[in-house]
Amino acid sequence: MSKTKTRNSSFRFAYFVLVTLIILCLLVLVYLVGIMFSDKFVRKTMSMPILGTVTEFLVGNLYGEDTSALKVSSDSTDVKPKKDDAEGESLPTYGELQETDLCTNAYLNNCCFLGDSRTVAMVKYGYVDESQTLAEVGLAHMNAESNVYTYKSGLQYTFDSFLDYYSKDIIYISYGVNGINFADEVTYETSYEKLIDHVISSCPNSKIVIQSIWPVREGYVGAGNITNAAIDYYNDYLRRLADDKGLYYLDTQSVLKDEYNQMKQEYNDGDGLHYAQEGYEAVMQYMLSHPVPGYEVYQ
Length: 299
Known about the structure:
8 strands, two-stranded antiparallel ribbon, Rossmann fold, alpha/beta, 8 helices
């Protein structure tokens, strides 16, 4: 009788060990599949003390990727919004952003940026990190949702995968100039609204800012239909769109124009369309002095 009990106990122990091993193997399999096919999974595991070290080793050594781009910077602490101002009044939740005292660059840690070559140049000149942007040179807003974006690290993202992981409390949207040459008025406006609705549905808790289209130098080579009159027309549309959707609007173009309603010559990078670093400095100063209410970061 005692031998039978001993055998039964041994069998139950062996069964328990076997089931435990199977579960562990399945967890390891899920983990390996996750780091192979999901950037979001990689980034989440890298935030865990022990598992992060293992993930960094596997991703960096087995796949040859630069894992520094996958880590969340220690100085990117989000600044949470205030519910009300000092006098108890509700903060404005949409409309044109108004001038305040100049924020520090820490404000930008809470932001991500969707756009074209002008957003790409923000990275080039060191104002924001590449991981905060989803942008491509020459991109029109009609193609932004279907485009595949490749980073310098070799990582690739779709519109949805970027918003899924990278969406911040504040999302700046800066498209428009390239679309003027490739779409009629109806297509231009309906596709821009569709893009905005996409971002709203993907990031319901984010504050969304539509930026005005920046001016050009009149008559630049290859301008086609891109004139400052056309830019002004579509900026009026974007302002109305922001109001209709309950979003913020940043009138960036106001600090970039000269008295002739075109790009200031000192901001011209040479082709009449793209901006020199001085232009981006003016844009960043304007952005930092017109922050989303409740997210201001001062010294």
